[in-house]
Amino acid sequence: MTKISGLVITYNEAQHIRACLESLLQVCDEVIVVDSLSTDDTVAIATALGAKVYSQAFLGYGLQKNHGLAFCQHVWVLSLDADERLDADAIADIQRLDLVNSQYDTYEFRRKNLFHGKWIRCTTWYPDYVRRLFHREKVRFSEAQCHEKVESTAHTQLDSHIIHYSFTDYHDMLHKLNKYSTQYAADNSGTKKRVSVWSPALHGLFAFLKNYVIRGGILCGFDGFNISLLNALGSYFKYAKLLEKQRYSGAKP
Q1: Side-chain half-sphere CA neighbours of 169 within 13 A
Q2: Is the pLDDT of residue 192 over 80?
């Protein structure tokens, strides 16, 4: 089996980091943790499990992960978020892969997003493909502050799963919605991407219909409706905040 480096970026992830690293250690020959100056037991737990821990003030999600690639010894890298872990079928798939002769530079996994103790199988939360295993000499992460991804043109999808403990409750979802929409506006404010006054409402409406009707949120009860609504609000505020930056960033108080 080809040797693989595991990569995780962390900040105060003591609740999740043990399960994340233990799953990586089943398929990785080393695990690299880039920690953003945690104040809890994240570093102690990671070190005790044998991970190589490097401290780095947070640079943004994409830049932070690219920074971590420099510490990886092997060309194939398996990157997880701290609140993710490999499911048994993903471990088995990775162990079977012939990475030496692979025609791909990136592999995508299905992600099981868990919320309120259950697997949400509706809305855009499933199958929610994410790129996690890649050849670091051929591809890198985008430099986005949030929702970074491996930039690849030669990727393939696996049917196996990554388990994701995404949000603890609706308060947590709203907090992250606000954070991610702000980061999206910052990532795109310097580009030529222009939005109109209709963009936030249209994107928000489409996101709700896609999640609740097309992707089956209507079948998932109370959580299905709320996830659809919050996804719509996230889309609305991404474009509302970008429009705000484009119109008023130079305005004087």
Answers
A1: 1
A2: no
How many angstroms separate the Cα of 96 from the Cα of each of 34, 93, 149? 28, 5, 24
Report the run of H or E that residue 164 belongs to, with start and end: strand 155-165
Q: What is the pLDDT of residues 139-169, one digit of tens each?
A: 999 988 788 999 999 999 999 999 999 899 9
How much is the pTM? Answer: 0.92
Distances (CA, A) of 189 to 92, 192, 236, 244, 250: 42, 8, 16, 10, 12
Counts for the chain of helices (H) and strands (E), in that order: 7, 9
Domain at 4-165: CATH code: 3.90.550.10
H runs (alpha helix) in 60-198: 61-69, 88-96, 170-188
Q: Are strands 76-79 and 4-10 parallel, antiparallel or unpaired?
A: parallel
Q: Which two tokens stand for residue 130?
A: 């994410």
DSSP letter assigned to residue 241: H
DSSP letter for 75, please: S
Q: For the chain, give every domain's residue range.
A: 4-165, 170-248
